[in-house]
Amino acid sequence: MLGIVLAALGLQAAILQQDAIRRILAINVLGVGVFLVFIATAYQGADAPPDAVPHALVLTGIVVAVAATALALALQRRMESSDVDADDE
Amino acid sequence: MNEAMALAIALPLLGGLVAVVCPRRGHFIGNLTLLLNAAAAVWLLSLVMQHGAASQLLGGWQAGLAISLHADALSSSLLLLTALVGLAISVYATRYFHSSQDATRFWPLWLLLVAALNGLFLSADLFNLYVTLELLGLSAVALTALGGKRESIKAALRYLMVGLLGSMGYLAGVAILYTAFGTLDMQQIGARINVNPASEVALVLMTAGLLLKTALFPLHFWLPAAHSNAPAPVSAALSALVVKAGFYLVLRLWTEVFPEAISPQGAVLIGALGCAAILWGSWQALQAERLKLLAAYSTVAQLGYLFIGLALLVSVEEGVTRDILFGAVVLMALTHGFAKSSLFLAIGVVQQHAGHDRIDQLDGTAQRLPATTFAIALAGVALIGLPPSGAFLGKWHLFSTSMEIGQWLLVAVMGIGSLLAAAYVFRVLGHAFGNAAFASRPVNVAAEEWPALALGLIATLLLGLGGAWIWQFLEVVA
Amino acid sequence: MTFDALLLLDMLLAAMMLMLAVAALHSHSLRQGIILFIVFGLVTALAWARLRAPDVALAEAAIGSGVAGALLLAALRDRKPRKQKTPMARPAWQVLTVTYLVIGLALTASWAFLDAQANHAGPRLGAMVQAELANSGVANPVTAVLLNFRAYDTLLELAVLLAALLGVLALGPERTAPRAAGPVVTHLVAWLTPLLIVTAGYLLWVGAHAPGGAFQAGALLAAAGIVVRLSGNPHTGLPSGVWIRMLAVAGCGVFMFVGLASMSGGANLLQYPADWAGTLILLIEIFATLAIAASLVLVYLGGRPESWSSGGKNARA
């Protein structure tokens, strides 16, 4: 449940924010939200062992998110270094 | 069969890895890998034709626990499309990327892109599809950024952000599906699913995410900039192959996983969006001043046809009509793949020789680059849907099915779309055949030009004349 | 008593996550936002731990907070301190429409999710994992899933990391290294780096039967590299030329080789022979850790280092 709220927060910010780095943060928060939904599904209570498959999926998701973040930041850096004092965007 | 599937994925992946380690041999590694890949794709296709559809459970574990790969008529034909178009693009790219620097950066990413496409078409596991989608997206974005200009970088960044939003939508849907049905295997979910709020919402989420990545109107806003500002071989790959991957997934999901959950309203919505895509895309293409922008908008429009086909598919009952329609959609997808890549490669040749791609300054191209102009003409024929191209057969069936079920609006829109396509194609050709200010000798750059020509020929002649084969194929395997 | 305390802790965690997320996304200064995001990541890691997902918690702390945080802060530092043009605020109607749409979407999704939980048909895959765990070669179920049952996903994931790395490398040269740091930092780094490396090795080794594994170990190793870099060392401890390139592809490559090799006996792709499974998994994990570490350090560098394309001696641009 919390996951969905987080995801919603992230989504709203991702669409509305204009600064690229903020958008990247927002997409990451969105990601954490979705991951939370997965892990919540995996939780079987305090006694039974949790379902390991969503854990693996979320691990993969975290790595993918970081990879995408790195690429996005590099693109943003290249873009910023190429406009000296551009006024648009 | 297992080996063929494994090869299809392993070859480009390994090729990419080798290309990273030995950057100076990029051209050789890339072309060799794509050649071998094409052989593997043909092999897989022939195996599927002989033995029918097949699955493979990776790791040998039981279904559900393992990731399963699935090769059937649809996936193996798309695999072949990727292989052939990919091979042509590789040959072209060998000449396009003069400087060793660009070549070093292109080849590994390009090979990873092909690996992602192959993996995507063969995968039958929802989460695995997510990973292949991400691989596809990241490599496509990185390739787009190779253009180097500020517009390319900006377009690439936007493509990345949009792509990530789409992936998250898809992943959210997968999360809900897993919670509800406890498996990630597409066939298992297809068997267990029933109409309940969870599956409906998951369907919407996943479709919306994928539509964002496939650029269906109105979620297409990122496409024209990305496809028109990337280097020519990359644009060809993006328009011909990458967007097809998104469409393929929507097709698979709608027909195999969610068939019951689709409501008529959903189909109508998709159909309406498809119509809007055709009209808007064609109109923008007509007004475009640059060739690449025209081609990019044309992609937006052509995707509209595909989605109209999808809408029709889910509205028609099971039976002969549906099978024919399915084949028509596949045929249109294949034809567009060949035609659009041919167009972009040809545009690349023109751009390199003329130094620009402005349409109104194209006069005399026919004289200087006859083969390329012919390729543009061939591609144009396929985009309009004139006989004997494969698109003609495809559109014919879309038309007739729409008329059969009384959807006259669809017929009208598709007709208008075809007319607009004719208009923008002839506009380009008109300029290309115009008289140059001074006569110039034809330039002979065979290696650059023949990939575009070959693709155009396939789109227009091969698929058109041989188009009937696809229905036999689908029937045999289905 | 215990029950109440834990519930309170969980509610506190949830509330903190929400507040941190809002604060991070809407803070006035970007630097503050990034720092809050890092804290958000750490609190998330705690949440994972509470939800009995220790492997994920480790990965979130190391990768989601640590590496991502380092990347974000470096990106912030890159921004030229020119006069930041304050972006025009979005018109109110846009903000409201999007917010309402998103709220609607969230409500629908919640309804769907709750329905899914209530009516879920049949067992989830966890039971199957537990059943087959003994045959997988490792005792940690998450490692078993990642490197055996669903190894193909991990293989592709390594390819994703490689694609991102290649993209970053293609965009330009690396950032200039920080100046050599003062004696305190240098000594700290000299002490910290081997500690990180050893811990990484431990995580890798222990991942077979306890929380840990290649990704967490790789991230920690990358942290060592980043720390070395921050102390002013321009080489960041990475080899040069063909070795660095091989290192970057080694994870994916070794994985692929093992997967293909396992087909030679007529088995499916990535079907390890049962008695070799544990060893093969460890082998793959070793190379994956190295590759992940190298890739993460390289993307932290922000671009192509001099050493990447050199044949060993002379560097080409």
Brief account:
The complex is a heterotrimer of chains A (89), B (478) and C (317). By secondary structure, chain B is mainly alpha-helical.
Instruction: Look up the CATH topology of chain A.
Output: Helix Hairpins
Cα distance spanning the termini of chain A: 36 Å
CATH architecture of chain A: Orthogonal Bundle
N to C succession of SSEs of chain C: HHHHHHHHHHHH
Shape of chain A: elongated
Keywords:
heterotrimer, B: 478 residues, mainly alpha, two-stranded antiparallel sheet, 19 helices, 2 strands, 78% helix, globular, C: 317 residues, 12 helices, 0% strand, disordered C terminus
Chart the SSEs and their pairings.
The complex is a heterotrimer of chains A (89), B (478) and C (317).
Chain A: H1 2-16, H2 20-42, H3 52-82
Helix pairs in contact in A: 1-2, 2-3
Chain B: H1 2-21, H2 26-51, E1 54-57, E2 68-71, H3 73-96, H4 100-122, H5 126-144, H6 150-181, H7 186-192, H8 197-214, H9 223-229, H10 232-257, H11 264-287, H12 291-315, H13 320-354, H14 365-368, H15 370-384, H16 390-404, H17 408-432, H18 446-465, H19 468-477
Antiparallel strand pairs in B: 1-2
Chain C: H1 2-26, H2 30-50, H3 54-78, H4 92-118, H5 125-132, H6 141-149, H7 151-170, H8 183-206, H9 214-230, H10 242-261, H11 277-301, H12 306-309
Helix pairs in contact in C: 1-2, 2-3, 3-9, 6-7, 7-10, 7-11, 8-9, 9-11, 10-11
